[in-house]
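Read as amino acids, tokens; as here:

___
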Amino acid sequence: TSLVLVGLLCMTVLSVAAADTTEVVTEDDVTRQVENTPPTDHWVLYTRAGTPPTAAAFDVGPGDPPLGVGSLQLTTVTGSEKVFLFNYDHVGMPLADIDAISYATYRTTGSAQQVTALNLQVDYNGDAPGGFTTLVFEPVYNTDQGAVLNGQWQEWDAFSGKWWSTQPINGQGAGAVVTQMRTMSQIIANNPDATILGGFGVNQGSGNASLVAAVDALILGTTDGNTITYDFEPYEVAQSKHDCKNGGWEGLTRADGSSFTNQGDCIQYVNTGK
């Protein structure tokens, strides 16, 4: 049994959010842990041993992010460093219920097609014994969606793109071999009992030396019309009067990151932008 599975037994899983929901994720929403330790929160930011904490930062920019003012910025200096942010709210969801997966990246420095990847930990055979694998989407193997470029935000349609699997699954061998890669629709058709078993999120490292990239607008959509968008931000900006009430103003800021002095200050900002 993997450490991820052990950790999941100790967690209370939240239901999938309502239709067209945007969830702001900041440093305050994540727990930082070392790779291969059981998840202790709904969001876990993992780093491999020897990878500095500065490998991941919620920060303003770069450029004009697709949502809000910031993003999750990832830096892997050496090929041995690794950093990844996983969400565990969708554990138990059948893959057959998913009809959209996408995210946006911005590469500041890097070479060739290096950029942040997506990971989805699944049980491909449902209730049968075993079945754990990690599905991986990488733009480097999806050049039909465009070349990875520096200095601009790019959106990747992972659902329609090609994924590789860390373990052999039905209709697909293991490894980052182009002939073994499948679209999510093909994976679902070949593995109709597959469910999300662990984390869903972004991953950078293991050979991505000298790569500085940012991620935002991570989207998961389902066949019942639910879509949740994860907006990575350095702070959470007040959006409505309701957000400000009952002490909510204390965890909110203006768009420039400045804090409020009280509830009235927060409400005034929502109403006037000042």
